[in-house]
């Protein structure tokens, strides 16, 4: 049986550790387990509902934020399978609500823009169902986590925080861009209006000054004796 040389042994070892490192990185990246993250358009006088099947005892969190449109507000309503209202807010810009499912079934949450007559909205929501499974399950373990495993858990939690911060700042950037574009449009319209008013006033002044220097014919009437 041929024996591997030194270079081949180092290459095999590097490949083995590379595979382990790749598997470790895949474990560290937080996955979208039980979470729905959607950004959608909500027209004026419209209502959009979403449904989620949840088992009893599951902890859930609903977060939403209006990114663009009008006063950046929307109505939100959450109901259990029996139609009981768990959460209801009117004209909210953003909010977060956490609850534990009391029964099995389909839960419904709706966003309404029915109070707006001509302004559509862009709404972002994140609906998390359950908690992320542990990175290293404790079942069937007879020893504590190793130093590398503990470091992996810390990095995993840090990556989750980074994802949350990235989502937060991405929403703030989108909202700020929308406000800036809206302000730019208003400034452009105001500038055009000022230009038109200035043009009308200038033409009026020209005609007014011209009337001051125009020759006026006077008529003299003599009264006979």
From TrEMBL:
One of its GO terms (cellular component) is ER to Golgi transport vesicle membrane. Pfam families: EMP24_GP25L. Residues 47-129 form the GOLD domain. Keywords: Cytoplasmic vesicle, Endoplasmic reticulum, Glycoprotein, Golgi apparatus, Membrane, Protein transport, Signal, Transmembrane, Transmembrane helix, Transport. It is found in: Cytoplasmic vesicle, COPI-coated vesicle membrane; Cytoplasmic vesicle, COPII-coated vesicle membrane; Endoplasmic reticulum membrane; Endoplasmic reticulum-Golgi intermediate compartment membrane. InterPro entries: Emp24-like, GOLD_dom, GOLD_dom_sf. The chain crosses the membrane at residues 187-209. Its main location: membrane. Residues 1-35 form the signal peptide. It is a single-pass type I membrane protein. GO terms for biological process: protein transport. PROSITE patterns: GOLD (PS50866). Belongs to the EMP24/GP25L family. PANTHER family: TRANSMEMBRANE EMP24 DOMAIN-CONTAINING PROTEIN. Potential role in vesicular protein trafficking, mainly in the early secretory pathway. Appears to play a role in the biosynthesis of secreted cargo including processing and post-translational modifications. This is Transmembrane emp24 domain-containing protein 7. It comes from Neophocaena asiaeorientalis asiaeorientalis (Yangtze finless porpoise). The lineage of its organism: Eukaryota, Metazoa, Chordata, Craniata, Vertebrata.
